[in-house]
UniProtKB/TrEMBL annotation:
Residues 11-130 form the TniQ domain. The lineage of its organism: Bacteria, Pseudomonadati, Pseudomonadota, Alphaproteobacteria, Hyphomicrobiales. It comes from the Bacteria. InterPro entries: TniQ (IPR009492). This is TniQ domain-containing protein.
Length: 310
């Protein structure tokens, strides 16, 4: 795709803000030039139907074209999109901003600035200032899983490293998140509300209790973006499984039964096959595999007991 004389550079370019999403930057230009955001995008890329499409996937040619018209480096344009985020992490990118940082919330040139991290289902802290993120336009209520804060931060970092830098340990952290949100039929309870239980509840027992009143807030493995009040539980679960190694997945399976267990076993089989090659995982396996689950969790959480909710 070559640029031609009709694709003139914009006479004035607004500086992008740190972590700003491409569509936000284009929308600010649209306001400046008194046109619509889509018209501004299509001035560069006539074939693109939506700003969301530009945020998610841009080819190298498309990046170069936008960079040319806005007189900016292609790497800067690319870095404003989700283009480099691997498929495994993409199901944790929301379709709209879910959270924001009260310290970093701001506008530029009279227009609101939307950040990439506002869409990330694994974030609980602001990547710019480290502050706690809050649900956009909603109430977060009391923190339910404060006792897991340290592990949750570790899980956040693991998921972020996978999404932003392609770094995995013995298994993809976002795959663990998917596994942990699978339904679980508890072996211990004769009567149960099946939709209220997830695999994650084995690792974070507080979750089972919370879910009795918050079932509607549980997302599915296909769309694992939790509300901010529940997110630390999932992040902590990811960190605990990552550190424990493959044996933890087998232990989780032992807490399930019937069809439910068969589905889970089948889901972890592929993951375990892939992890056999990893030297790091076998070392972790030796360290963690001989301890009971409760002691692994306690060790992971440090000396701090889980905070009660209510
Ligand atoms: Zn911030």
């Amino acid at each position: 795709m070559k640029t031609n004389v009709y694709e003139r550079r914009l006479p004035i370019r607004l500086a992008p803000c740190a972590d700003e999403l491409l569509s936000s930057w284009i929308a600010r230009h649209a306001a400046f030039y008194a046109t619509s955001p889509l018209a501004m995008l299509q001035h560069c890329l006539p074939d693109l139907r939506s700003l969301r499409a530009a945020d998610l996937n841009l080819t190298e040619d498309q990046v170069v074209r936008i960079a040319h018209i806005f007189s900016i480096e292609p790497d800067t344009v690319r870095g404003m999109t989700f283009s480099d985020i691997p498929q495994s992490s993409r199901r944790m990118i929301a379709s709209e901003p879910r959270q924001s940082c009260s310290s970093c919330r701001r506008a530029a040139d009279g227009m609101p600035v939307i950040l990439r991290s506002q869409f990330f289902g694994w974030r609980i802290t602001c990547p710019l200032c480290g502050g706690t993120l809050r649900t956009t336009g909603g109430r977060d209520g009391p923190a339910l899983f404060g006792g897991y804060h340290h592990a949750a931060l570790m899980g956040e970092e693991m998921l972020d490293n996978e999404a932003e830098h392609g770094i995995q340990n013995w298994v993809s952290p976002s795959e663990i998140a998917r596994l942990l949100l699978m339904r679980r039929v508890p072996t211990s309870l004769p009567a149960y509300e099946p939709s209220g239980y997830r695999v994650l509840g084995v690792i974070i027992p507080d979750l089972d209790e919370v879910m009795q009143t918050e079932v509607s807030k549980l997302p599915s493995p296909a769309s694992p973006i939790l509300p901010m009040c529940l997110r630390p539980a999932l992040l902590a679960g990811v960190a605990i499984v990552q550190h424990a190694g493959p044996e933890m997945l087998r232990m989780l399976s032992g807490h399930m039964m019937g069809e439910n267990k068969a589905r889970f076993d089948s889901a972890i089989e592929d993951i375990l096959d892939c992890s056999h090659q990893s030297l790091g995982s076998s070392q972790l396996h030796l360290i963690w595999g001989s301890r009971p689950l409760e002691s692994q969790i306690k060790c992971q959480m440090g000396k701090q007991p889980p905070q009660s909710h209510g």
